[in-house]
Predict the 3D structure of the following.
Amino acid sequence: MSILVTGAAGFIGSNLVQHLLKKWPDRRIVSFDALTYSGNLLNLEPVRDHPNHTFVKGDICDREGVRAVLVDHEISGVIHLAAESHVDRSIVDPMAFVRTNVDGTVTLLQEASEAWGDRDDVRFHHVSTDEVFGSLGDTGAFDETTPYSPNSPYSASKAASDHFVRAWHETYGLPVVLTNCTNNYGPYQFPEKLIPVVLTRAMAKRTVPVYGQGSNVRDWLFVEDHCDALATVFDRGQNGETYGIGGEAEVSNLELVHAILDEFDLATGNRVGASRALVAFVDDRPGHDLRYAMDISKIRAELGWHPTVTLKQGIARTVRWYLDNGAWLDAVSGGEYRQFEELWYSDRDGAAT
Ligand SMILES: NC(=O)c1ccc[n+]([C@@H]2O[C@H](COP(=O)([O-])OP(=O)(O)OC[C@H]3O[C@@H](n4cnc5c(N)ncnc54)[C@H](O)[C@@H]3O)[C@@H](O)[C@H]2O)c1
C-alpha cells in the first residue's frame, strides 16, 4: 500500500512520516509538499534514505502534479495535512488561505475521486482543527456534533475544506475520514507558533510576547500522540466519520508560557522563574477565541486511542529538543519568517527586540 502524506515537510507532517515509517514497515510513504516558508526538507532528514520513503515536491493546487503523483506512485491512501496554518498570517493575507486550504483540498478530492473511481479499498483522511468550532465559554467542550462557527480566516478556510470533504463522501461516495485536533506542540514546529516563539525568544533573551492578559485557554497535545491518533483513525476509523482528538490538557496561555520558561530555566541552569520576567503583554489578536477544548470520548470508546504524554513531560521533551537543535532553528528562521516576525512584532515589543 502506498500512502500520500501532503504537507509532509511541515511540523505535524514530518513527525507523522517518521512515525508511520516505523509503525508500518510494509507500506510505502510518499511525502508531498510545496516547501513553502513553513515546510523544510530538514524536517525529513531522518528518513531521507529510508527505503519505503519518497519525497515529491508539488503544490496541492496543481491538478496535473497531483494527478501524476497519485497515478505514478499507485497511491491508495491520502493523509491530507498541507495547509496554510498560522492564524496571524491569515489575518494579514486571507486569500493565501483560501487558495491552499480550500482550492487545494478540492483539487486533491477531485483528483483522488478521478484516480480511484468506485474503489472501496482506498481512503482520504482529512486533517483538521478544533478551531472550526469557534470559541467556548468557561465550561464545556467541543465534540463531533458541535456546529461549525469559525472566527478567523484560517479557521474559516479549514471549515470550508472540512465541508468539501464531507460533500465528496456524500455526493461522490469517496471513502473519507476526518479528524479535528486541538493545539499540537513538539519537535520541528516552525518558530512562529506559540511554544517555539517562547523558547526561541527566551534563548535570545528577548521579550516573550503574550496576547492580551494571556487568559485564553487551549488544550495541548504532544505531536507524537497526534500522529498515533492519525494512524489509528486512518486504519480503523469508520468511513464518513469525524473524530475529535485532544490532549485533555487545558491551560491558559500565561500558565503555559510560565511552564515553558521554568522548564527552560531548569534545563539551562538558570534560577527557575527568572525567565518569567521576559513576558510582555501585547495587544490582543483580533477575533481571538477565548477557549478551546475537545471531548475525546468517541475516539477513546470506538478506537481505544488516548493521549499518553502529559503536558509536563511533553514540555520537557520539547524544550530539550529545541536546545539540542540550534542548527535546525537557525536554518528555518531566515528569510520570509524574519520579515513576517518584524511585521508582526516590531511595534509590539519595541526596544526589547
Ligand atoms: N499545528 C497544530 O496545532 C494543528 C492542530 C490541528 C490541526 N492542524 C492541521 O494540521 C495540518 C498541519 O499543520 P502544521 O502545524 O504541521 O502546519 P505547517 O505550517 O507546519 O505545515 C504545513 C505544510 O504544508 C505545506 N504546504 C503549504 N501550502 C502547500 C501547497 N499549496 N501545496 C503543498 N504543500 C503545501 C507547507 O510547505 C508545510 O510543509 C494543517 O492542515 C493544520 O490545519 C494543526
User: Anything to note?
Assistant: The longest strand covers residues 123-129. The longest helix spans residues 94-116. Residues 37 and 336 are 6 Å apart (CA to CA). The pocket of nicotinamide-adenine-dinucleotide is lined by residues 6-7, 9-13, 33-36, 38-39, 59-61, 81-85, 100, 104, 127, 129, 158, 181, 183-184, 190 (CB under 6 Å).
